[in-house]
Amino acid sequence: MPTARKFHYQFNLRDFTKIIQNIMQIEHSPYAKNPLGLARMWAHECHRVYLDRLILPEDVTKYNEFIANGIKEFSDFKPDVILAEPLIFTNFISVCKGHEPAYKNIFDETELKNILN
Question: Which backbone phi and psi does 103 adopt, to 5 degrees?
């Protein structure tokens, strides 16, 4: 709930649209037969749109409950599998390697750190 301290807790359909738009940027081939990858991307996008705005620990806890319940409701995978860290998707790793931009899951944090440095 928005308050003077949490004025940025204004969520609307634009936020939901951001999640869908980013999921639509993926290449079809890596996710065609990979529902876990698609579910992880959805969780990543939800985290970036909603979780990144939350400032209080109790709000983060409530968000984590909501997302875990959503995963149980709509997926055959356990929440721990979908939310396993690192839960990072980006397209600039493939660009830095000289490939076309591809929105992919980053499994190697050291590779990400080296590219960012």
Answer: -75, 100
